[in-house]
Amino acid sequence: MSNLEGGIVEDLDYSYFQRRIYTLTGIDLKNYKSEQMHRRLSALMARCNAKNFVEFCKLLEKDQKMMQTFKDYFTINVSEFFRDENKFRQLQEDILPLLLKRGQRLDIWSAGCSYGAEPYSVAIILDQITPLTRHTILGTDIDTTILDKAAKADSYTTTDIRSVPAETRTKYFTQTGDKFKLTDRIRSRVVFKQHNLLRDPIQGLYDMILCRNVVIYFTDEAKDTLYHHFWEHLKPGGVLFVGGTEVLNTFKNSGFQTITTSFYRKVA
Fold first, then answer.
1. Same domain, 223 and 255
2. Sign of the CA dihedral 124, 129, 135, 137?
3. Measured distance CA(39)–CA(129) in Å, rounded
4. What is the largest CA-CA distance in the chain?
């Protein structure tokens, strides 16, 4: 088979794979950069000895464990409490106090929250600076299995909490064996819900939206659409908190104003 014929077959296989994955999971691979997706998926296919996308798809359909591995690998379920300590220090010392001047109770959304470390980190900070106030914190993710883990909040590892200060760790976690459980006081502060950022409508208005290290493989068009939706669902003056390597290149035209790296304020 010539290189041209091989490329056509692979493109057809990948088109089939895109359609089936969308049907099975709701994940639309057309919104992701194809070159990066091919590279990541090829590495995963090699691990399970799948020769092509069609064979890989059939494997995922019949093996739920492998399907979960695919979701974890694909959606990058990597997180930890207070990930990027300097940013969370800035969040505690500058951003949240700024938002609290606007209202005593905040509405916060952690989009692509994985197993809950991010929204729980925000809940811990708010419990420290406004202990008598119950804010609304929503954590969403496309993966229902990872959300079940987030809701339980009882099996975090030493790596998951390595950035948590010792005093905070003592106050908000209990240890059983090599696992750490979050206190019910904080666990009850976050509500989790399944949500597909690229497909499902967004409900409500928020003082702050966190979407960190989620859009890394999105196409520029998908990113622009998503950030516009975030802007629409932020209250005036609300803040978008993104990952350290994620920059809103068109923020001046999208209604966002830079506060500092990773933090953008909605302007009218």
1. yes
2. negative
3. 44
4. 70
Below-50 pLDDT ranges, the chain: 1-9
The last residue of one of the domains, among 53, 75, 97, is 75
Output b/e per residue, 156-168; b: 16+ Cβ within 10 A. beeebbebbeeeb
For residues 19 and 27, is the Cβ–Cβ distance under 8 A?
no
Specify whether 122 is located in the same domain as 18. Answer: no
User: How far apart are the two ends of the chain, measured CA to CA in Å?
Assistant: 58
Place of tokens 């056509």: 8
- Specify whether 124 is located in the same domain as 14: no
What stretch of H or E contains 149? helix 144-152
* pLDDT one-digit tens code per residue, 93-150: 999 999 999 888 999 999 999 999 999 999 999 999 999 999 999 999 998 989 999 9
Residues 6+ apart with CB under 8 A from 34: 14
Count CB neighbours of 250 within 10 A: 13
DSSP state of 122: H
Encoded tokens for 29: 């691979």
Nearby residues of 161 by Cβ (< 8 Å), 6 or more positions away: 80, 81, 169, 173, 180
| CA pair distance 192, 113, nearest whole angstrom | 9
Q: Is residue 80 part of a domain?
A: no
The SS3 assignment for 175 reads strand
Distance between CA atoms of residues 77 and 141, nearest Å: 10
- E strands present in the chain: 107-111, 136-141, 173-176, 179-182, 190-194, 206-211, 234-242, 256-260, 263-266
CA distance 99 to 38: 41
Q: Does 99 map to a domain?
A: yes
